[in-house]
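Before relying on records like the one below, remember that each one covers exactly one chain. Contacts with other chains, cofactors or solvent are not represented anywhere in the record.
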Amino acid sequence: MIEWLTKPITEAQLHAWDEGLNNWFFVLALVFLIFEFVRLRLKGELKWNMATDSLANFATLAAFIAINVALGLLYLGTFYFFYEYFSIAQIPITVWSIVLCVVLADFIYYWEHRFMHRVGFAWATHTVHHSSPYFNISVAYRFGPLDGIIPLFFHIPLAMLGFNPIVIFFAEIVVQLYQTALHTEVIRKLPRPIEAVMNTPSHHRAHHGSNPQYIDKNYAGIFIIWDKMFGTFAEEDEKVVYGITRPIDSVNPLVVFFHGFTRLFVQMRGAVGLRNKLGYFLKPPGWEPRR
């Protein structure tokens, strides 16, 4: 058993695992989305806007993929640069190192996610993900323009610690896919020990709520313990109202994809003075200049 955990894994093998995991998970997600829609239809709760909203979600996914493909070499190249020239060691690729990297990537994801909610320009891209008034697995594929770029800066320390860039990329994918699976109303509450340690659909539903007590809560990726440690945990204890406090009321993919930056630029353009313009760019959502 120990030998299996420490047996070297090649970059090519891990890359194949990454592609296989991504592809199969996406197929399963589509099947599950159909199941969610059938379930809602049988309950008499399926609305036409849910279907068009899901189409908009996948349109943002296509744009997200296009941006990532265009910048993919830069993304991995940056990791390799820090891995080759600034790492304190070069950790072999094994099951143990992959598991450790996933845990560390999940911890980093908590802070990255928190940053996306609390800094103006970061929220301008992440608000796309939160703008759907529905909650199904297609919402997990609702991305903003910079959602694939900002994580790079948070994960560079993993390369400096000595994790192979392919391992880092794989760890990011694992955290992202776990998050994807949380976007559902089908699963209500899981057993208490799981709810206490792991992020669950219940915890993530609260995260997507525009209810005052749910705003800026439950940033976790895989382990909800990060939120409990840093004071950002909220229990799902009342019906969640999904979406953002200023709804966009549109399923036009262009409106959905760019609305965050459109609103940000309008605020910055109307602000008096550089300080106030930077305030909208860097301060948390809802910030207003002093009168």
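The chain has a mean pLDDT of 95.
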